[in-house]
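Section 5.1 Outputs to date
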Amino acid sequence: MRNRIRLTIASAALYLGSGGVGSAAQPPYGATQPDIPISSRDRVYHADQTSNTVSVYDPSSNQLLGVIQLGDVTPGNLSPLYFGQLLVHGLGFSFDHKTLDVISIGSNSVTFIDTATNAIKHVTYVGRSPHEAFFTPDDREVWVTVRGENYVSVLDGTTYKETDRIPVGNGPGMTIFRPDGKYGFVCSSFIPETKVVEVATHQIVATVAQASPFCPNIAATPDGRQVWLTLKDTGKVEIFRAAPPFDVLGTLNTGPITNHVNIVRNKNGQFAYVTIGGENVVKVYTTSDTPQLVATIPTGELPHGIWPSGDGTHVYVALENGTGMQVINTLTNKVEATLTGGQSAQALVYVPEAVTTGDGLANLVPLGSSGQSVHLFLGTAGTSSPAAPTTVTLNNQGPIDLLEAAVTGLKANASYTLGLVPDQQRPDQDFQPLSTFQTNAAGAQIVESVGPLRSVVAGSPEPHDRRYLQIVPANEAQPVQVQLP
């Protein structure tokens, strides 16, 4: 107990001090630390759930350097002898910038990667379906939210071995720490509550009610005043105070498939940037006690992870269905670049000064077929593709394709089926179901299917082989959304 208290005091002193090289005023650091200008030593990473890769970028040149291959694509990863990682999804990094941690949901693992060499240092296997992991501000521990169970797995920050488990209730989604290291905030993806945990003692000191159960992402402001969390099931963002009594400051209606949130500090102030997958935008809010929407930035398809540069001048957005990443200038709130990357990008992090020696290209491989995808749109017949509520990506998996549809614009909590028809003029004839799904409270859902689909719906097959995607309500024959030209 005394050791943990001493460590927390030390991290608080680091937070309150003047800081030095390797610290920044951007998340996850404190507001008193100096910014770090963008340079070729920095790296941007996003986790690619379908290609089982980590895409690696140089932000100084807006260039994809390559990918770290952690596993194989489907169907190779379905073998009983499969050894790689599966469903590469979550990302975090150490406060000394030397270690990237990568969560793979399907293989229940945390992969620790050296940021200078892209080499795997260690793999720790934890409980069922972990979601995100992050180092404590003193780098002594790594907290892994084990979403398929009911606890946070605490790993030693040097040996990466599990040292403790913190029971927090069913389905913990993510942990983020207040910059001074005193509290960890653990939101839930299964029950409507966020736990506040004292880092020094691993004891729960408060419970904050969530407006709905499904929280995938959480962020703390560098000034240590607020915590922002996203609610993907209802299309909302909730804000609460980062100090006792941890009271809720407000709940914002942000839009369907509200994915991730992060905080940006620049000469214009401190702002929260939120990715809204169902609208294909990033929304920007003030971080006042009564947040105000100040910008809506159009992006590529299904924006997911988001993280600012070390100086807050840019923010980087992973495109889950757009297959890559976009760069937004936070001073103009305009997209400056769109870069290709691995398939089904999820979490994204920006690590300043990740490469202090060498060129940082070791152990990277070319993107190759991991970047191959086809993009389609579904909506009401007669509407235009850019205005379509549903985007579809067909990711190349070799002999087959993985279809992912970001469905929006439907009735809330209703049952639908995504399927194929041979003739768009006769949508009720020869319907072939692909996936039946239930929409959430925002009338949205992420729908997936696997099969040899690209040549059927997007290639140039013989006319009798051609099929068209459509969405049909349960127990009905007429579609509510059809594939658009």
